[in-house]
Amino acid sequence: MRRNVLSAAALACTAVLATAMPAFADDPSPVPDTTAAATDSAEQADGTGPSPVPSDRGASEATPAPAEDTDGVTVVPRGAPDTGDAPVAEQSGGDGLLIGGGAAAVLAAGGAAVFVVRRRASGA
Amino acid sequence: MTPFSRRAVVAAAVACLVTGCGGGADSDGPVATETPGNRSPAAAGSSVSRPSPLARSVPVGLEIPAIGVDTPVVRLGLAPDRTVEVPPITADDPAGWYRYSPTPGRPGPSVILGHVTVGAHGDGVFRHLARLRRDDGITVRLENGTAARFAVTSVRTVAKADFPTEDVYGDTARPELRLITCGGPLEDGEYRDNVIVFAALRATAP
């Protein structure tokens, strides 16, 4: 019986370690953040600074008069505005779900193993 | 001993499942495509006496007391793909006025955009835009020292795929205002919807 308890404890520890490893490995990766920031700043700079793609686009954008001089919208933009950069916690939400699901699966497997061991030990 | 250990294993598995599911259900926000308020902004307030339009002057500040907004306003143009530019993603992100729309207080729809969230910086300037209700006040300060005071006529949450271009950018006879941000649930790291506030000029100052 004591062996059963010990084996259950060992399985639980294994499950905790198995779920902790991916969590630790997931955190310290600064690479995506910097690339995202670079993209954002590039887009912003593109709108305010001189355009890297010269004459064609620049000419077409410069043609319409700013609406400061008219009443009504002089250039209707294409599509819907993208006015939300998702919070970091939301972006990693999928990872959290995966880790949680993995932990649940490992624990369930551990529980099944304990059950089998106990059944064998009791000779049923 | 036997029923206890079995219960312990089951309880641990259930707890793990609960925490795992909780990770993904953080704050999807309100379900989209709800339409609190009036859907036909042009009709609202038509019987109210109309203030005279203001002289053309670029907006420099925006106040929305109902949701605690008091922010500078920057100018926005078009992105290379011909979508509207958005304000910079910074800690204290400002709102942005679309420079190809009328200045606030002039006839037509003046368009101001702001972020709902700004990535690692947290909430954006328009985080609570969807909480606005009909008749809430909006004040836009202009570069020449005057101010245009608007009242909300409707708030709409619409799927980006069905963005109401004509309702937002179409001509209007009187001075109106559009405030735009993102909303709805996140899908692959992108907000599914836009929240659009329609407002009409209520007064001018000084």
From TrEMBL, chain A:
Keyword entries, A-Z: Membrane, Signal, Transmembrane, Transmembrane helix
Positions of transmembrane segments: 97-117
Signal peptide: 1-25
Source organism, top-level taxon: Bacteria
Region Disordered, residue ranges: 23-94
Protein name (record): Tat pathway signal sequence domain protein
UniProtKB/TrEMBL annotation, chain B:
Keywords: Hydrolase
Superkingdom, natural source: Bacteria
Name this polypeptide is given: Class F sortase
Membrane-spanning intervals of the chain: none
Gene3D superfamilies: Sortase
PROSITE patterns on file: PROKAR_LIPOPROTEIN
UniProt xrefs under Pfam families: Sortase
InterPro entries named among the record's database cross-references: Sortase (IPR005754), Sortase_dom-sf (IPR023365), Sortase_F (IPR042001)
Region (Disordered): 29-54
